Automatic annotation (TrEMBL):
It holds the Pfam family ATP-synt_8. The gene is ATP8. It comes from Moho braccatus. One of its GO terms (biological process) is proton motive force-driven ATP synthesis. It is found in: Mitochondrion membrane. This is ATP synthase complex subunit 8. GO terms for molecular function: proton transmembrane transporter activity. Keywords: ATP synthesis, CF(0), Hydrogen ion transport, Ion transport, Membrane, Mitochondrion, Transmembrane, Transmembrane helix, Transport. GO terms for cellular component: mitochondrial membrane; proton-transporting ATP synthase complex. The keyword Mitochondrion applies. It is a single-pass membrane protein. Belongs to the ATPase protein 8 family. InterPro entries: ATP8_metazoa (IPR001421), ATPase_protein_8 (IPR050635). It comes from the Eukaryota.
Amino acid sequence: MPQLNPNPWLFIMITSWLTFSMIIQPKLLSFVSMNPPSSKKPTIHKTTPWTWPWT
């Protein structure tokens, strides 16, 4: 089974993961979020229970 031969694919996989983790990932993580989280408290909605006619 030729797909079990790790000779060409192992090098490609390791190279791509190193490229991603060393070059691309820090660039992506350096972006500033356009919508920073706010410190507002969540609103609590007052709900009334449903009154069933047969109870």
